[in-house]
Amino acid sequence: MADTFQLSRRSFLRQTVAFSAVPALQPGRIFAQGADFAAPDPNAQHMFMIGDWGTDKYIDQQKAVSFGMRTWMGAHHVQPQSMFLLGDNWYGHLHEGLDDERWQDQFENMYPANYFPGPAYAVLGNHDYEKSKHDKVQLQLDYPKQKKTRWTMPAKWYTFKYPAQNPIVTFICLDSNLPGTKAFEFMPGSYLMSHAEAEEQDQWFQTELAKPRTTPFLIVTAHHPLYTNGIHRDNHVLIPRWDRLLRDHKVDFYITGHDHDLQHIEFDGHPTSFVVSGGGGAELVNWSVPPESRGPFGGRVIGFTHLEMARDGLTLRHVDSSAKQLHAFRKTPDGKVTLLRS
Ligand SMILES: [Fe+2]
Questions:
Q1: CA of 232 to the centre of ligand 1 (A)
Q2: What domain range is 157 assigned to?
């Protein structure tokens, strides 16, 4: 199962310089590496993130990731106050709509409230944009309005500050299912957001970014990566629309799913750390380019991402389904990234 790659500092810098031949991605970023493994701080805020988890074929893998999260909690004496669901929340059908048993089997009971007591924020993936008997997008918007649940999706795109008191992070949650992002139809009824919705969201996104920062960190989440070493490749619909905004507003993290793996990509001179966390349960897929071509980390594994939040720094850990930490880094409010020894 495990198929991971982690760059040494020397090879990371060499690869970074090689990649920087791409005009938009210039050199200049400095990294520190080698800080010791730091155990999760139980006094910090903790969010567990999964993408591509609502599989209709690989339930055992989804269960393995859920058990891995619980094992990790026990081993490190931490409990997440929240989850983040990074899209492709529902593959296949929800035949019974809001009453389909999959809501219980694959969400409410799969991530039981005694382990995951807080809200589960969600964004929409390409597999959520499928209509058959029901429109899975509308179901996900309606579910928290009609059911007692931790599922939290107030709109297709939304923002919140976290935690509510003395917030550390502003989250801007986007719908990345823009026109042009589906290369082919996955199933009958597959569709995308309209051009008008995409324009409306972009206007809203720019308005939110332009507001004065009130938190030490700003994280943008969506389903589709801009940059990925995975099978879906760099997204040439999203890059021209959003990369400049991430740079100009010094967004600290852009966190997504879509590729069924765990990745961390940094570009010299780019203020944003790009994270892919698509290992929630769906089938593993291959790399489109070797992960060592752009690092510092790629893991072709099922697993999850543990985001630890404190005012003086965010620590992001990629953890596999056996609760083994594969990769970790810390980012401070000055933008400095430090890779942590696993
Ligand atoms: Fe996807």
A1: 9
A2: 4-18+46-340
How many domains does the chain divide into?
Answer: 1
Is position 59 within any domain?
yes
37 in a structural domain: no
pLDDT in tens, 93-118: 999 999 999 999 999 999 999 999 99
Compute, in angstroms, the gap from residue 214 CA to the centroid of ligand 1.
Answer: 32
Q: What is the CATH number of the domain that holds 57?
A: 3.60.21.10
| Within-domain flag for 106 | yes
Does 28 map to a domain? no
152 alpha carbon – ligand 1 mean position (Å)? 19
In the chain, count of helices (H) and strands (E)?
7, 17
Rounded distance from Cα 206 to ligand 1 centre (Å): 24
pLDDT, tens digit (0-9, with 9 covering 90-100), for 232-280:
999 999 999 999 999 999 999 999 999 999 999 999 999 999 999 999 9
What separation in Å is there between the alpha carbon of 129 and the centre of ligand 1?
A: 10
From the CB of residue 134, how many other CB atoms can be counted at a distance below 10 Å?
Answer: 19
Is the pTM for the entire model greater than 0.70? yes
